[in-house]
Design brief:
Layout lengths: L1 H24 L34 H11 L20 E5 L5 E2 L3 E7 L14 E8 L4 E9 L4 E7 L4 E11 L1 H11 L6 E9 L6 E10 L12 E5 L6 E5 L9 E9 L5 H4 L9 E2 L1 E2 L4 E4 L22 E4 L2 E4 L9 H7 L4 E6 L1 H13 L4 E2 L11 E5 L4 E7 L10 E2 L6 H6 L7 E5 L10 H21 L4 E5 L13 H15 L5 E4 L2 H5 L11 H15 L3
Parallel strand pairs: 1-14, 2-15, 18-21, 18-23, 23-24, 24-25
Antiparallel strand pairs: 1-3, 3-6, 4-5, 4-7, 5-6, 5-16, 7-13, 7-15, 8-9, 8-12, 9-11, 10-11, 12-22, 16-17, 19-20, 20-21
Length: 547
Amino acid sequence: CRLRQCVLLQACFLWTSFCLALWTLNGGIRIKQFQPPKPKPDPRNNNSSILSASDMGISDEEWDRLQKALDWPIPDQITHLNQSTSPVHSTFTAVGLKESYKVGENISVTITARDHNKNLKRYGGDFFKAKLFNSELKASVNGEVVDHRNGTYSVVFLLPWEGQAQVFVRLEHSSEVVQIIKKYRESSFPRVHFKGYFESGPSKTRIREAVECNLKWGEDGSWKKGNCCCEYKDKRTGTVWQCERPKTLSCDKLVHHSSTHLESPLNLFEQQFFAKKLTNVAISGDKKIINVLPNAAAIGTVEKCRSGLTTPVPAGFYLKDVWKSFVCSTQQFSAAQTGNCLKNKIVYLMGDSTTRQWFEYFERKVPGIKRMNLHNDPKCGPLMAVELKNNIIIHWRPHGVPLRFGRVMPITDLHYISNDIDEIAGGPHAVIVFTYCVHLTFHPITFYVFQVAKIRQSVVALLSRAPDTTVIIKSGNTAGLKDIFLSDWHTLQLDIVMREMFRDIDGVIFLDVWQMTSCHYLFENIHPGPVIIANEIDMFLSYVCPN
């Protein structure tokens, strides 16, 4: 017995010594090594990059160009949370700040990224946002963050208003988080789930079944395997929607659609990087007040709003809650001016709830306009409003699946944007506005390219048969959530794709609301407040009825 006790004590001593040595090597901190997430419930890591350019409906040259535009530096695989960028230890500094400036001059800011051990980062890829602001003047302007890929970043701010200004910088995501987001963007792991509702029979004895549905995309072709599912292929776009096969009803009985729940693919190690204290946090830096004096030389532009104009950074700025555009000469429209501008126009608003906000704004703003009762859910649409005196018609319709509306809605009401554009004759009376962004952040970017290619094809055909048609692309909004499901990094990447794929298409207007939603003092929300919507509409009307 004594011999056994001796052996056991010696074994315990050796094991304790081994554990202490490991603890010391790891800096006294328990570190969970980076491990790929365990699939839920089956492997779904087919990378969308295995698709060819022709699968997406574009040329190899265009796909190469898109990949270069989307390029974002990411770190090597990391093993410690404390290696990631820390919003507490990262700082910004105004370079060579003077006592005063004049309107139209610039200031430079340097951002230095550090990890949680206060070490300088040696690589880039962090997602910073920067703006200049004055709360009293309700003034703000975006600054473009330039990544030098060595842990430092620079921002050049234009000083567009007279008075005082301060710099504000925040770390939305570390480069390590971007790495994780990018990995899952290219995965077929279903972060969002949908339901399809099948129905058949008379009202009193009607049979109903609800099953899971989702997008079919990628080399493997589906998120379900085998002969499990009903497939619905759109004849014109080629998009395939897939639903589990109902137990009793046939595949042609699909009637309604809704989204259900979100599913996080993050393992425990990855979840640490998305902690609230590390996400979308202001970093410390130079808080000096910048004094801006008037300047006899005017800034801005007198260019009429039209297609073909480039969007600079900054694209404009807020002053007293009014957006002053640097793209073209804009104005504020009164209710009467709004009605007069839209006289004899048919406005087609397409996309998601952010264009529905425009529809609701027009309802309030255009004198005498009335919404027609189309006997549907006002949040799901389609919607239609008419003003008879000035012959104004405004439509709104959400885009086709995948669409993450929580309400149950008829599947027949969900049209792909390209198909709807194909059905519009066009002409000087027709104004088309579409946005196609936020609901696509849950799916591979290759699928987004495929869909945008179809929309572009339809827009080109429309402008060929009716070149006087006004076509406006509304960019994506910045969002309040900053997580694996809805990150502004996702949205920015989709925004880049849309810009790149339409940059050479004559007659198309790109309305940048990203900067308008990003730099405003209101808390970022996928559904911006009324003051932002009013400025977006004034931009829109300035293109429809230029000065």
